[in-house]
Amino acid sequence: MVDRLANSEANTRRISIVENCFGAAGQPLTIPGRVLIGEGVLTKLCRKKPKARQFFLFNDILVYGNIVIQKKKYNKQHIIPLENVTIDSIQDEGDLRNGWLIKTPTKSFAVYAATATEKSEWMNHINKCVSDLLSKSGKTPSNDHAAVWVPDSEATVCMRCQKAKFTPVNRRHHCRKCGFVVCGPCSEKRFLLPSQSSKPVRICDFCYDLLSTGEMTACQSTRSDCYSQSPKSSLNDVSDDDDDEDSSD
Question: What is one Pfam family matched by this protein (predicted)?
């Protein structure tokens, strides 16, 4: 079916509409063989709080952005090659239901659908696209994934020392290796993680010690692992209110 749609006028028109919705700031999306599989609004677990994002699934990439005007205008376009994607289901937690993890070497995060059926459809379509791509390329799935950041609200104290309380002065930081929310003194070191940055990035002392001694092959916790070790509070990527990366954080 995908091959039949690849060169159809309807597919070309749909992709052109998506391009126009992102405007001049977005990257061109029309290339030979690319097919728009589906689209929809998903709730993305950002650093500060869950936020609605518009997602577009193509046969080779996953694209998402901020919603400015629904079905008319989006900004802050993100493009994720599907060859590098692995997804894992997440158990329901309170108001956060029907979720799964989207994991890549450079960035990993959680998203939530409105219904269990919608979640199943998204996951099935993504898995099918990834499987088809890997089959054609002969590549194997990536085992190297960036950590899923624990949201700020999940930690009132440093998740490493368990002592430092976060305040407007004592800021939260995120370890780029494990995704934990940590205080400044527990994350003063930097380490080169080539899949995430060409420069050394902030990591916590625990991960630094393991990485520097070669004892860590994958200090990457799943979202549930992280939360089971962190203090709970009520109900990230370092940009402003979006979800993305600020090297200072």
Answer: PH
Q: Which part of the chain has CATH 2.30.29.30? A: 1-137
For residues 192 and 76, give the distance between their C-alpha atoms in angstroms, rounded to a whole number.
Answer: 26
Buried/exposed code over 198-227 (b: 16+ C-beta within 10 A; e: otherwise): eeebbbbbbbbebbeeeebeebbbbbeebb
Q: Specify burial of residue 146 (Cβ count, 10 A radius: 0-12, 13-18, 19+).
A: buried
100-136 pLDDT tens trace: 999 999 999 999 999 999 999 999 999 999 999 999 9
Q: Which residues pair with 100 in a beta bridge?
A: 89, 111
Cα Rg of the chain, angstroms: 19
Instruction: Compute the residue count for the chain.
Output: 249
156 burial (CB, 10 Å; 0-12 / 13-18 / 19+) is: middle
Residue 69 CB partners (closer than 8 Å, separation 6+) = none
**Claim: this prediction has a pTM higher than 0.85:** no
CATH class of 1-137: mainly beta
Which CATH architecture describes the domain 152-213?
2-Layer Sandwich (3.30)
* Helix-strand-coil split of the chain, %, nearest 5: 25, 25, 45
